[in-house]
# Entry
Amino acid sequence: MPKFSDRVERISISGIREVFEAAGEDAINLGLGQPDFPTPDHAREAAVEAIRAGETDAYTGNKGILPLREAIAAKHERDQGIDVDPDDVIATAGGSEALHIALEAHADPGDEVIIPDPGFVSYDALTKLTGAEPVPVPLRDDLTLDPAAVEEAITDDTVAFILNSPGNPTGAVSPPEDIRDFARIAREHDILCVSDEVYEYTVFDGEHRSPAEFDDGGNTVIVNSSSKLYSMTGWRLGWVTGASERVERMLRVHQYVQACASAPAQFAAEAALTGDQSIVAEMTESFERRRDLLVSGLEAVGIHVPTPRGAFYAMPEVPEGFVDECIERGVVIVPGEAFGEHGEGYARISYATDEEELREAIDIMQDAYEAVTAQA
# Structure
């Protein structure tokens, strides 16, 4: 057998994927982080028109088409009040690639990257692929990341920390004072804050704030995507923006691993960003109703759930054996330890599914809970 790189041997297939494969075909899937809304018609039509006009037959520039990058810059000015130069935007193959090139451009073997625990599965894996060491930081009881805990974890080897608000897998939204503090930490310690903002528009309580609003030293890189903002997961169109020097280094990675994002997806994302925004409120209102349905249903069962303030995930505290019992009964949820050591004793539930299925799933989860607690 050939020898494989140490970097790839340090990572494994996501625990989320393992859960999917263990479930039956007819299972209710509460494990998938995907909105169940269609992509906006005007975004689809923009891609179709570009294809018919022959505008998608060739590579675009490495950074992406200028109208898309201008739309992204305008979005950040509108939503965060920050001045982004379109030349400092790279269109990527989803938020996943944006995260990848941000870490590849800033981390070396032996460096450390602070990540939330529990946190999105890619943070640990992508850090390891750079050769750097992930440093997990436990979350507070309300599942937000504590700036003091991040600052305490910083060493001479720390090059970056990752912030994700609203958060996956927690649904937590960091308060503005914490976001301001994260910007201060990055500036004072001269390290990078990678701000994963892909759930930016899905906030029920509080508000989304970006550390870039408080960054006057170029220590923040924003990762975002059309996937969750506009229900475009299959289009694979994200972006990354930051200081010019950082963008130039990330571009070096992007041009070799991707060349450019999908051309049809770029035209679709431009239309999504500049067109009718009513889908944003529609999705948020629907997810809030589903959140309330899930939280009240699980609390009635006896399962404690820190109330999610954003995204479309809940992370209840569950007894041992609960996840397996749910899967055996046909409801797919993800064990908390798939997102880090401190996720043990929790489960991630995605409520990005219709309310009828959600009610059915709650009934099944009640049966599962009663089964495992009766055995205890």
Summary: The mean pLDDT is 96. The first helix runs from residue 6 to 9. The radius of gyration is 20 Å. The longest strand covers residues 158-164.
